[in-house]
Design brief:
The complex is a heterodimer of chains A (about 280) and B (about 290). Chain A has about 280 residues and is α/β, with parallel strands linked by helices. Chain A has eight helices and ten strands. In chain A, the strands form two sheets. In chain A, strands 6-7-8-3-9-10 form a six-stranded mixed sheet, sandwiched between helices. Chain A has a four-stranded antiparallel sheet with strand order 2-1-4-5. In chain A, strand 7, helix 6 and strand 8 form a beta-alpha-beta unit. The N terminus of chain A is likely disordered. Chain B has about 290 residues and is mainly alpha-helical. Chain B folds into two domains: about 40 residues; about 220 residues, MetI-like (MetI-like fold). Helices cover about 75% and strands about 0% of the residues of chain B. The chains are: A alpha/beta (about 280), B mainly alpha (about 290).
Chain lengths: ~280, ~290
């Protein structure tokens, strides 16, 4: 039994030896999506996970979310082993995953209604606050199909934060958003999240996003997916101002990450295991 | 906390690109005038057919009027028919049985379809049998059903159910299979599982498919009702039609057929309206893409 001091210092999320294999019925073989992933994330930390497409970073996030059961290893959140989704973890999906038959208001409400939070009386106010926080006031009665991609992801973000989870899991949330909106929303996410002190895992394949958002960057390699490198980012916040991008430390970090990913891509293609 | 993240200008949302405004598809408006022209053409075609028919029978006497009464005679019979009280009791009887059969088919079809579409175990064990039954000519089972349930409403309702349930079941199954996986994941992440996941995510996501199935099922079910009435029992529109044909009242018989066409089309229209009402977000092209 750990004593109380150790418990307090323990990381919020502990990923231990997580391996995920999928059986491929057609060929009778199995595919290793991720292998032996160990990761500790402290409360309030903003971790960006960077890696090429198909490197299993989404799989790791799904294991933490409780959507995928690991073949080996385990994930604990606040000392409890994850066996399924829970109200302490919310997900922002790459393809937004909004319910098309619900208005913006009702989609955001969905983040509360399954947790019996609707009994608490002030739920309307909480939904409205979340909608205003992401800048969608006035669009409460619109339907997802009437909104642009960026606005749909704002709804996805509002739905994730409305129940005030401790952990926010973001799976390439800006991956499907156009380039200009992407930059605006990246800066907004930095301000929004750092203000609330949530613990965030943010998956991306953009080096800029990884540096500008993360307290720490976890770089993944593919075939099979595994952690290649972890880098602490000590650039001052907020980084969204243009200034950060001319900071020599930013440039150095960016070049380093380019090299790491490029070497990895070359190695993967030479290994003949690519794609 | 409740500060908007966006720069706001006069209450309007501004993004990096431009002020946002809601874009509502104006497809139906643009199509309206074109559709009107087609309707006019259709009416002209129908009118031409009626004219040729009338000419062939009444004026040129190419076909004996006993076998093919002219449109004017059919129209007169139609008017006579709709004021007869026995017509309306037959009408009520047929539609009552149809409604009971279709409602049963919807309940069974949607529940079984969702279950089979959702659980892989059922998909691999039960679905092949459903497809097999779907392809069986169920009309061939009519004598068997009448043998078991006797002449009358029970066997007619059974026939309606049998014909209507498979399109509903199989469409629902396909719909449940194509519900976007990340909607299901989102449902689970935000705490829905079991029945709640079915009711909040799976059922509404599948509804447009089910409604297409219900539309086809209801049309087939009406065939089942009329068939059941042909094969035995008293009352019902099919029975009236059969009697008119036996009495060699061809104008009455054709008027009855027209009534049935109207009923079938009204049923399709009502369910079509339900689709618009309950699944306005659904775009058939988007569904294909979502797979």
């Amino acid at each position: 039994m750990p004593d109380s001091a150790e418990t307090a210092a323990a990381p919020l999320i502990e990923v231990r030896g997580v391996t995920v294999r999928y059986d491929i019925a057609r060929t009778g073989t199995s595919l290793t999506a991720v292998e032996g992933v160990d990761l500790d994330i402290a409360e309030g930390e903003f971790v960006t996970v960077l890696g090429p497409s198909g490197c299993g970073k989404t799989t790791v996030m799904n294991v933490i979310a409780g959507l995928v059961k690991p073949t080996e290893g385990s994930v604990t959140v606040d000392g409890r082993t994850v066996t399924g989704p829970g109200p302490d973890r919310a997900v922002v999906f790459q393809d937004y995953a909004l319910l098309p038959w619900r208005s913006v208001f009702d989609n955001v409400r969905f983040g509360l209604e399954m947790q019996q939070s609707l009994n608490s009386g002030d739920w309307r106010e909480r939904v409205q606050n979340a909608i205003e926080l992401v800048g969608l006031a006035g669009f409460e009665q619109s339907y997802p199909r009437e909104l642009s991609g960026g606005m749909q992801q704002r709804v996805g973000l509002a739905r994730a934060i409305v129940a005030e989870p401790r952990i926010l899991l973001m799976d390439e949330p800006l991956g499907a958003v156009d380039a200009l909106t992407r930059e605006v929303m990246r800066d907004e996410i930095e301000k929004l999240i750092t203000a609330t002190g949530k613990t965030v895992i943010f998956i991306t394949h953009s080096i800029e996003e990884a540096i500008l958002l993360g307290d720490r960057i976890v770089v993944f390699k593919s075939h099979p997916g595994a952690i290649l490198e972890e880098i602490t980012v000590d650039l001052p916040r907020p980084r969204s101002e243009r200034g950060a991008q001319s900071d020599p430390r930013y440039l150095e970090l960016r070049d380093h990450l380019w090299d790491v990913l490029q070497n990895e891509a070359t190695a993967a293609s030479r290994g003949g295991k690519g794609s | 906390m409740a500060r908007a993240l966006e720069p706001q200008e006069g209450g309007r949302l501004v993004t990096a690109t431009m002020p946002l405004k809601i874009v509502r598809p104006s497809r139906s408006a643009a199509r309206g005038s074109g559709e009107g022209r087609w309707r006019l053409l259709l009416a002209a075609v129908v009118l031409a057919i009626l004219l040729v028919w009338e000419a062939a029978v009444s004026w040129l006497q190419l076909v004996p009027a006993v076998f093919l009464p002219p449109p004017t005679a059919v129209a007169a019979s139609f008017v006579e028919l709709v004021v007869r009280p026995d017509f309306w009791s037959a009408f009520g009887y047929s539609l009552g049985n149809l409604a009971i059969g279709v409602v049963l088919a919807v309940v069974i079809g949607v529940v079984v379809g969702l279950a089979v579409g959702w659980f892989p175990v059922l998909r691999f064990t039960v679905a092949p049998f459903l497809w097999l039954l779907y392809s069986t000519p169920k009309v061939a089972l009519a004598p068997l059903i009448i043998l078991i349930l006797g002449l009358g409403a029970a066997s007619q309702i059974a026939l309606v159910l049998l014909l209507a349930v498979f399109p509903i079941m199989l469409n629902t199954m396909e719909g449940a299979l194509t519900v976007n996986k990340s909607l299901v994941n989102a449902g689970r992440v935000f705490g829905a599982n079991g029945i709640a996941l079915g009711v909040k995510v799976l059922l509404p996501g599948t509804l447009p498919f089910s409604l297409v199935g219900i539309q086809r099922g209801a049309a087939l079910g009406f065939t089942g009702q009329v068939l059941g009435e042909f094969l035995g029992g008293a009352g019902g529109l099919g029975h009236l039609l059969e009697r008119a044909a036996f009495d060699f009242q061809m104008d009455d018989a054709i008027a009855m057929v027209i009534v049935m066409v109207i009923i079938a089309n009204l049923t399709l229209t009502v369910i079509g309206l339900l689709r618009k009402r309950f699944a306005p977000w659904h775009d058939d092209r988007a569904t294909v893409k979502a797979g």
